[in-house]
Amino acid sequence: MSRTLVSVPKTAKVGEVIDIRAMIAHPMETGYRMGPNGQAIPRKIIRHFACEYDGEEVFSAEFHPAVSANPFVAFSTVATKSGALTFRWTDDDGKVETASAEIAVS
Amino acid sequence: MAFRLAFAAALLCAGIAVAQEIPPGERRSGTDFMSAETRAIQADDGSNPGMLWVLQGESLWKEPAGASRRSCASCHGEAATSMRDVAARYPAFDTASGAPVDLAGKIDQCRTTRQHAAGLPRESEELLGLSTYVGHQSRGLPIAPPDDPRLHAARAEGKRLFETRMGQLDLSCSSCHDANWRGRLGGSAVTQAHPTGYPIYRLEWQAVGSLQRRMRGCMVGVRAEPFAYGSAEFIALELYLAERAAGLALETPAVRP
Amino acid sequence: MNVRETGLIGRRGLILAGGAGLLVLALPPARALARPSLQEAVNGFTGGKPVETGKVKLDVPPLVENGNAVGVTVAVESPMTAGDHVRRIALFNEKNPQADVAVFTLGPRTGRGRLSTRIRLATSQTLIAVAELSDGSYWSSSANVIVTLAACIEDLS
Known about the structure:
By secondary structure, chain A is mostly beta strands. Chain A has no helices and 8 strands. Chain A has one domain: Sandwich (Immunoglobulin-like), CATH 2.60.40.10. Chain A has strands spanning about 5, 10, 15-25, 45-55, 55-65, 70-80, 85-90, 95-105. In chain A, the strands form 2 sheets. A 5-stranded mixed β-sheet of chain A has the order 2-8-7-4-5, with no helix packed on it. In chain A, strand 7 and strand 8 (about 95-105) form a beta hairpin. Chain B starts with a helix and ends with a strand. The model of chain B is unreliable at about 1-5 and about 10-15 (pLDDT under 50). Chain C is an alpha+beta fold. Chain C is about 20% helix and about 35% strand. In chain C, strands 1, 3, 5, 6, 8 and 9 form a 6-stranded mixed β-sheet that branches. Chain C is globular and about 50 Å long. Chains in contact: A-B, A-C, B-C. The interface of A and B includes residues 5, 21, 25, 69 and 70 of A. Chain A: It holds the Pfam family SoxZ.
């Protein structure tokens, strides 16, 4: 089950810079940790995050193990037109999780 | 090393100060002891990672489970209405088992006896999700432990456990959280140990965990053998803690360092 | 003897890291030495081009309660137009097992040269934010963070 939390304003004026926050439930296992049995816990992190809006990627990030568990990022974009902002997280295994939020731009 | 020294210091303090209950007017949530940065993470739902567990709980709430093919919502409807203030009243007396039960135990009981589904183990993601979601419905409401005579014995037992020295460090909960809550243990505030925000997102855990997990951590800290999850001892402690924190507002999901 | 010593060091490393509230970043000492220095990491990002100080503001609390989630905000002075904007912002640390933290890609449609995230810091150390602008210039800002030791650590088992 995908657990993501994105906040995008419901409405905005054309040209307005809007604040966006995105978070996903993920342990961001560093690969440096040892389990109780002394075995290394294999690395498993979200490697890439991207936000697409109005046909274009407006922000993206490449994460390393030093990004906190349940990675959080806050950024902005310019409101251009009504539609969906889509968010995409890709982990080490290439597994993709997505979220989207609608905005009405006037 | 550093924490051992800190504990030794706490031990000395505990020897000097006489454990005394915190007067109601001086009761403060753990939030008051946190840095502005950690408080800011908790205050904003868009940045509070505990909300991810609330979301998971919300979807589990609506998901049919077990042989009954019923969801929590099938019987309880909208959690915002039916579960409002429930967490503020738990632990409560459970007539079926004839013993006090905490919220996680009650959810698990519903799961097995009403939904006829497999039980949810303590600290499982599902039980934490549901507990956090139900707890969240009481956010902002004061902790209101029921004045049920059937709970008196267990609550008194909880108080006794809270004040019992244990472990190699020979400290009781009360040694730190009644007598030395103004102090610091290494870099950390000692705090008054009020269960205002459980399940909490703890930065150290990098995840949401229960009050019992937190208490187990403290017990390991004083080098005591921790009580088992779901044990009568922990329920008794939870009962006493709720009474001790009566009137403080619930914050679920709280964020703690 | 050798085995015992290694075990001892490993255990100590674990306890120390745990003390910092960060079992996550505990690792054998040999691997810790293999990481590039802060300067090498920055050079890797800029391709060795000169990095100027200014334009970038790295905002991080000087003292944090837990190194597992340290809030970081980077703001770069830029009009964020098609002709003049921030292309990338990279974050590097001095003392984690790996120097890299994250690299963010921005553009005119990002609107502001500003972002926030939460990162892990294994211990007290220096952080640096480097911004690459659309004219190919690099700007940076650094900050020192003190990570206090957590008093109570929890058994992993």
